Amino acid sequence: MSFLNRRLLLAAGLALGTALAGPAFAADNRVTIAFQTGVDPAKVAQAEGAYEKATGWAIDWRKFDSGADVIAAIASGDVQIGYVGSSPLAAAASRKLPIQTIFIAALLGDAEELVVSDKSGIKEPKDLVGKKIGVPFVSTSHYSLLAALKHWGIDSKSVEVLNLRPPELAAAYARGDVDGGYVWDPALGKLKEGGKVLVSSADVAKWGAPTFDAWIVRTDFAAAHPDVVTDFVKVTGESYKAYRDNPDAWTATSRQATEIARITGSRPEDVPGLLKSNVWPLLPEQSSADLLGGGSVKAIADTAAFLVEQKKIPAALPDYSAYVAKTYVQQALTKLSSQ
Fold this sequence. Notes:
Structural class: alpha/beta
Distance between the termini: 53 Å
Order of helices and strands: HEHHEHEHEEEHEHEHEHEHHHHHHH
Number of helices: 16
Shape: globular
Largest sheet: 5 strands, mixed
Strand order of the largest sheet: 2-1-3-10-4
Radius of gyration: 19 Å
Helix content: 40-55%
């Protein structure tokens, strides 16, 4: 049994146990939210306490290095809301974990890339054969790497793909233990200092394997506290609008870049470029046919089918619509229109 399957089976077991035990959260109006180190506009709201102000709840923000770890924490009940990529989301939904997608956080582009070391001898894709490439398993980067290898006609078994979380990957790359890695910032920036980009997730998307990041919620928490989830979505959407209305104001020396760098560990001077690497969907766009209106359901299903083909999960579900909810976006828009 693969590492991925063992982790997902553990998560599924934890989720079932937690569901049977019933919800054991929010007795003191406190919620635990899992975030990752990717750069996005809502990190400013996180840094400045906007979520706490809007919900009236205390928030325990917990940093995770991979979507697989976030899924395991949500499955166990330790985390109620979390940030994950479309690949771990598809894997978790395929295991019928009690989650819903409530906000498409990013349509991924150049923010995730495959970088190969200048010392690796890798000049083109075919040179990857026999090389060691690090990537966080069950992540969007992992999915994109496998999709890229398939596009190039390279058997994934001919490449030594190692499961490394971003900090571990950056360290292994610096030591010369791996020839390259597919990852996001701040680890991505460290890899690029001594290497070159072989492909980005924007390229892989054009080849038919788009990826996205999403905010998900435990279904029992959402059912018990819909207003908290709605306010969370509302603040996130407002943050994205603040950026989309005036992206040029988010310079390397701006307050926004400073706050984002503090939360993510990225360099302030890298923040403007990283923000431009992805698409940040606004609240009115979230419930469109391309996103929570059905597009994300299809994307999750397509990702799950690919993971089955790659033998990363045993089976896909016939329908993933239960794992996507546009209700909270619609309620957030209603709140904004009444202000």
